[in-house]
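seq as requested:
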Amino acid sequence: MAKSPSPTFAIGVDYGTNSVRALVVDTADGREIASHVFDYPSGEAGILLDPKDPHLARQNPADYIDGFVASVRGAVRRAGKVRGFQPQRVIGIGVDTTGSTPIPVDREGVPLAMHKAFKRNLAAHAWLWKDHTSHEEAAEITRKAARSRTDYLAKCGGTYSSEWYWSKILHCRRTAPKVFDAAYSWVELADFVPGYLTGNTDPHTMPRGVCAAGHKAMYHDDWGGLPSKRFLASLDPKLAALRDRYAKQAVPSDRKAGGLIEPLAKKVGLPAGVAVAVGAFDAHMGGVGSGIKPGVLVKIIGTSTCDMMVAPADRPLPDIPGLCGIVPGSVVPGMYGLEAGQSAVGDIFNWFVKSLCPAEYGAGAAAHVNLTKAAAKLSPGASGLLALDWNNGNRTVLVDPLLSGLLVGQTLHTRAHEAYRALVEATAFGALTIINRFEEYGLKVKEVVNCGGISEKNAMVMQIYADVCNRPMKISRSAQTCALGAAIFGAVVGGAYAGVPAAQRKMTGVKPTVFRPIRSNAKVYAELYRLYSQLHDAFGVAGHKADLHHVMKDLIAIRDRVRKG
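struct tokens:
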């Protein structure tokens, strides 16, 4: 009788906003063997803040290094208790991170924050994705790109964001020139980690992922990679030199960045030389871990959301305004990767509970549960409330970090759970706006797969999304889809599969539970969405004027009709 082949394993390392998770999976079927989470110790929940500037959000690069060692070592030790696992059978490691999270580094690629002289300088640390201090620079880049001979923003929605690479670097140049001058180059977190693991942190030769480069740094083959020196110099003469301190070509994550260096291998309990994949952003690898393919929209729902789609690269694809990028190979190699998203979802719910929730609902996790229970009993439209989901700005389709939230229709009789439900509904309306934008430009959304903590834990949110979007909401089989997606790339570079689609067919799936739209709810939400769209355009689109009286009149009419049954 033929002897069955020995199992092989891959590790996905997922760098989130507050922690890093390592996940060990069986490459044969995606079975999750063990995981371990390391919470970043620096700052507030891992984020370095400035009480004088609410737009600032930085991270300590040392936490990333310590996080890799602690999370992978912990996951490998736990996996050691599972029958059949041996560290020698780990064939690959994949890495995903938040982004855009650029880090100023020296000539050797060492983060400036790890030098004593810059340890306490917030500008020398990693600029976390949710840092919006560079909104003025982003607007300037948008204006100058619009006048440029080359349409550098054509592949990233037509508007540059304060969350992205060049705007943050330009802001550093203007507000922290000592840090800027000391930085030989800037490296995305998604590139830094694989470079560190493989001993290649030289900014010139470190593999740069096309995911980060294309979606956040205006990289595209159509104009030879990064924007020209002339364009960068038009922003600031000193930016032009950074173009030469970058790899000549950005590559997808099915490419091998190198092998795990021996000192790190010993620390985490793995053999040296394990293949390490080129890095990418968490949402993009989350799409892969959720089984993304043409026609499938994957929603990664957490503190914010990222909405991912892919399309065949051999067919013409129009530029889509308001998206965060259309990049070949950024999600699945050989396909266009398309990214959209919302700047705040879970963050909105947490803000409401932390800042505005009355004591009668409890506090913390209990308040979430009690608010959800009460809100779930309400019928759509019964509260007479309507909200805009811009509490952390708008990522898609308006791409404006300075927009803010709005709650319309509140009275002296409004209860907390009514406002809470209105905020949930607002995020669902924002999700539908993104779906509509995709479909307006010919990308049919045939299926929606959700992943992330909220989709796993909050059935009310998923039902509202199904009703508002008027389509079924599926849930990814894995509760750790970003880490699973990273592990899939680890499996590919480790030789278990010839490509990502083949690995996905074996290693991904969806849960049996599907949230289907309730026809009567969907009908009311269609009316409310029309009002949401009026507010969206009135407050978010230049040239439109708000007609709150008209919106309020219709809101009250819907409320009264629903309450009467």
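The chain has a mean pLDDT of 94.
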